Amino acid sequence: QVRLVESGGGLVQAGGSLRLSCAASGRTFNIYTMGWFRQAPGKEREFVAAITWSLGKTPYADSVKGRFTISRDNAKNTVALQMNSLKPEDTGVYYCAATGAERRTWDQGYWGQGTQVTVSS
C-alpha cells in the first residue's frame, strides 16, 4: 500500500500563487507515476499534471500549461505542484494520486484525501 498526504491548499486572489505538496509513504518503491487531479463543485474530476518517477516526464492539462509546474523529490518521496497566475476556474479540491506496479491506472491507483484550493476574483 501507498499512503498519500497533501498539503498547501488555501485561499488566494486571482493572479496569485500556491504550492501544493504530496508526501508518499509505504511501498513507495512500487510507484511509477505521481500526479495531481482536481474537482470543482458540480464537475467531474480532471487531470492536472503528472510526473513519471523514473524519467521525470511531465504531461500537463492544456488549461494549466505555462502556469503550473510539477516536480518531484525521489529521495523524499514527495511531489509538488507550483501554481502561478491562478484563476477563479482553478478553484477545486486538488488530489494527489499515484500509480504503481500493483495499481497501473489512475482509477486503480492510490489517492490522497484532497486539499481545497480557492481562487477569488
Plain-language structure description:
It contains no helices and ten strands. It has 121 residues and is mainly beta. The chain is globular, with a radius of gyration of 14 Å.
Features:
mainly beta, 121 residues, 6-stranded mixed sheet, 4-stranded antiparallel sheet
How would you spell out the order of helices and strands?
EEEEEEEEEE
- Count of discrete alpha- or pi-helical segments spanning 4 or more residues: 0
* Chain-averaged pLDDT: 95
Strand content: over 45%
What portion of residues is helical?
A: under 10%
Largest sheet properties: 6 strands, mixed
Which oligomerization state do the chains in this entry correspond to?
Answer: single chain
- Over the alpha carbons, how many angstroms does the gyration radius reach? 14 Å
Termini gap:
40 Å
Structural class: mainly beta
Shape: globular
Number of strands: 10
Low-pLDDT ranges? none
In short:
The chain is mostly beta strands and 121 residues long. The chain has no helices and ten strands. The mean pLDDT is 95.
Explain the layout of strands and helices:
Elements: E1 2-7, E2 10-13, E3 18-26, E4 31-39, E5 46-52, E6 68-73, E7 78-83, E8 92-100, E9 110-111, E10 115-120
Parallel strand pairs: 2-10
Antiparallel strand pairs: 1-3, 3-7, 4-5, 4-8, 6-7, 8-9, 8-10
